[in-house]
Amino acid sequence: MENTDVNRSLKTRHLSMIALGGSIGTGLFVASGSSISTAGPGGALIAYVAIGIMVYFLMTSLGEMATYMPVSGSFATYATKFIDPAFGFALGGIIGLTGQLRWLLTFQPSRSLLSTGSQVGRRGRSV
Known about the structure:
- With 127 residues, the protein is mainly alpha-helical.
- It has 5 helices and no strands.
- It has 2 domains: 1-70, no CATH class; 74-121.
């Protein structure tokens, strides 16, 4: 039988890179225009720094929990273990609903584009 133990050797630099990689995403680039027009460049920079610090600490603590108690689950598993089973259940429901909502919001616009595209005949004229 194979040894399936998890090697708990994450160092601070590993957790820092996980936090940095998790905080930089497409949302940073997509939302930059509207936040700069609303808050100005200084306000947007302050907001990004504040949220970046919060995300850094969140990802660091999640990395430490994953190293301390490796499970094959989501945030809800840690919430059930460390906070309360009812809180873990509610968090799991929220994660499930947002996942379904994200799928629905992605699927519906593409479905409407496909349906309108099928009504256009050759040379761009409506059928």
